[in-house]
Amino acid sequence: MDFITSGTIAAVKALYNTDISITDINLQQTRKEFEGDITIVTFPFTRLSKKSPEQTGTEIGDYLKNNVHDVSAFNVIKGFLNISISEEYWLAKFQSDISKGQFGTIPSNGKKVMVEYSSPNTNKPLHLGHVRNNLLGFSVAEILAATGFEVVKANLVNDRGIHICKSMLAWQKFGNGETPESANLKGDHLVGKYYVIFDKEYDIYIKVLLYFLDSDKIKGKLGTIDSAEREGVVLGYDRNDKTIEAFKETGFDVVHARDLIEKFEKGEADPESIKDTLILIPSAELSRARGGFHCMSMPLFRDSSD
After folding, report:
1. How many helices (H) and strands (E) does the chain have?
2. What does the DSSP 8-state code read for residue 43?
3. Tens of each residue's pLDDT in the chain, 306 residues
4. What one-character-per-residue DSSP string does 92-119 give?
């Protein structure tokens, strides 16, 4: 701030009839607990003023406020003259700085970084959270670029994993050709709808296992089940028409798992009373998509281990 140093030189000359140089002036940033922007250390000038540091600071401060346009106020703390700069000065400086082409940036540091955002889940609708992530990701990328990094912005499109496979499979089995237009839904909402349907259908499968299998063996190990607690109860897939007919011919009842679970939950049937029954589960692909029982069915009869 040249106007502070030149003003101080002029103040010392006018007040104490002495010439000083820039090197005689000690400027510091004002400590945050005091009001002001720039602090002048007044101790070196007391030998010229023959006065205390406080008096010297007050005299120089008065001169600067009355003769330097951009000095708006001052205060003296012992030997430190705290100068407040006018708002007009800061606004003018800001306008000048931002008009420069590379304002707020530093030269390249030769490093490259990637910022990946927001890569929304393809089987769920977009919402305000995605807007937030877009803004945050873009802002981080721009800040990194301004600080010298070469930034690659990445957004994973069509991020298809098991989640989208669930939606696709549920649509194939239960969608009946439904489209966003026929359902009057946005595309992402339709995908989300069948993601929910998958979980609902899969829950039926799990409930049947919980009713009829040893629960200690199915916790976290659905793919390794190889025994059942009940004789005469069979789990089968609903696509095996010949198997279904064969069971009917031998006197077995055939019921879909969905209907059976509903009866259990309404109290219309009891798992303990189920016998000579083929329980139909959604087809093999649907069950296997989340670690199903891999064409395993419960044994019709079990020999005693004794």
Report:
1. 12, 9
2. G
3. 799 999 999 999 999 999 999 999 999 999 999 999 999 999 999 999 999 999 999 999 999 999 999 999 999 998 999 999 999 999 999 998 888 877 888 889 999 999 998 887 766 677 888 899 999 999 999 999 999 999 999 988 765 677 788 888 889 988 999 999 999 998 888 988 998 888 887 777 677 666 665 444 444 433 333 334 456 777 777 777 888 888 888 888 898 887 887 887 788 887 777 888 888 876 644 444 444 444 444 444 445 555
4. HHHHHHHTSTTTT-----S-EEEEE---
Say which amino acid occupies 100. K
Residue 297 belongs to some domain of the structure: yes
Predicted TM-score of the model (pTM): 0.42
For residue 64, is it within any domain? yes
**Do 261 and 176 reside in the same domain of the chain?**
yes
Number of domain units in the chain: 3
Classify the phi-psi angles of 133: left when phi > 0, otherwise alpha if psi is within -120 to 50, otherwise beta: alpha
Q: 23: which residues sit within 8 A by CB, 6+ positions away? A: none
Q: Which tokens hold the place of 10?
A: 């002029």
Domain that holds residue 66: 2-89
